[in-house]
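Entry 14: structure prediction run for Putative MATE family efflux protein. Input pasted below.
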Amino acid sequence: MSRPFEVTHGLVLSIAVPMTLGFLTTPLLGLTDTAVVGRLGQAEALAGLAIGAILFDLIYGSLSFFRTATTGLAAQAFGRADERELQAVFWRATLSALALGALMLALAPVILWAAPDLMTDDRSVQAVVRDYFAIRVISSPATFLNYAILGFVFGRGQPKFGLALQILLNGTNILLSIILGLWLGWGVAGVAWGTAAAEVLAAAVGLALVVPRFSPGSRPTRADLLDRYKLKQLFQLNADILIRSLVLNGAFALLTKVGSSFGAVTLAANAVLMNIFMLSSFFLDGLAGAAEQLSGRAVGANYRPSFNRAIKLTAVWSFAMAGVLAAFFLLFGQPIIQLLTTSPEVREIAIAYLPWAAMTGLAGALAFQMDGVFIGAIWSREMRNMMLLSFVAYCVALLTLVPAYANHGLWAALNLFLLMRGVFLAAMVPRKTAQSFIAAQ
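Run finished. Output C-alpha cells:
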C-alpha cells in the first residue's frame, strides 16, 4: 500500500535549512572554548584543551553514525505511518545510546591512562588532558542519548525541533563555558563541566518534549523492542556507516600523511585549506539530511514518485549550494587564508592551491547527497562497498598523481576521491530503487 506525499522545493529547504543552521552552531562552540582558555594565558592549558577536544572528536565523531542510522529508520517508519514502529525505533535507539554510554564509562580509565601519553610528551599538558577528559566523559550517556533524540526528530520530519535542541545544547555549553571557565576562573575544568552539564540538560529537555507526544495506544511491547530482525537491521546499519566513516577519516589522514612529505610549510597550508572543505561540508550536510529524511520517508511510504522527486530536488539544491560556495571561496578565499594564518610563507602556498580547495564542495556535492539517499533508504551495505572502492581508486590516484604533480596531484586526488564516491553511488541508484520498491509492494 502506497502513502503518497508531495516533495517540493519548499519541503526540501524546510528540512535542509534548520539542519544546516544546527550544524553551524558546532564550530562556534569550539571557537568559544578556545577563546575562554586562551584568555587564561597558559599555553599548556590551551594545548591540553586542544588535545582533549581532538580526543573526544575522534571518539564521538566515529560514533556519530548512531544519529544518522536512527534518522533513516525513523524516516521509513514515519513514511509508513507506523506509530508503533516509530516509537520502537526511538526506544531501541535510546537503549543503545545508554548501553554505548555505559561502555564508554567502563573504558574511560583505560583511555585516561593511555591516550594522553600517546598524544603528547609534555607532562603538564597531559595533566590538563586527563582533567578535561575525566570530567567530560561523565556525560557520555547523555551525549549518545542526544544523538538518538536528534536522529529521531530529524527522521520524523521535525528539523526545527532538532535545531532548537542543538541551539539549546551548544548555546548552554557556550554560556556555561564562559561563566565557569572565565568568570569563576575554573579554566579548562570549567569548560569541561560546561560541556557535560549542557549535554545532560539537552538530553533531559529532549526526552521531556519527545516522550509525552507518543500515543499510549501505540506503545511497543517488549517483543517489538527486542525483535531480532529489527535489532539486526539496526546493528548492520550502524556497522556499515561506521566503516564508511572510518574509511573517510582514513582518506583525510592519508592526505595529511602524504602532504607532510612536502615540508612543514606546505603541510600547514594544506591544513588551512582543509578548513574550506570543512566549511563547505557543513552546508552540504544539511541538504544530505534532507535527502536522508525524504528518501527514507518515500521508501517507507512505498511511493516511488516522491523518492525520484526527492533525489532530483536535493541534487539540484546540493549542486547549487556547492556552486555558490566554490564561487565564494574563489572570490574571498585569500582574506580567509590571511585570517587563519599570519605566516607569509603559509599564506603564499595556501593561495597557490586555493582553487583546488574551493572546488572540493562541487566535487563532493553528489557524494554528500547520495550518502543521505543511501542512509535514508537503508542501502548501507552498498554505501560501505562504494566507499571502499572509492578509497582504492583514491590510493591509485595518489600513487599516480603525487609523484608527477606533487601537492597539485595530492589535491587532485582528493577531488577525484570525492567525485568518484558520488558517481559510484549514483550509478547504483536505478537498480536499488527498482529492488526497493518492488520489495515494498
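Notes: The chain has a mean pLDDT of 90. Will compare against the previous run tomorrow.
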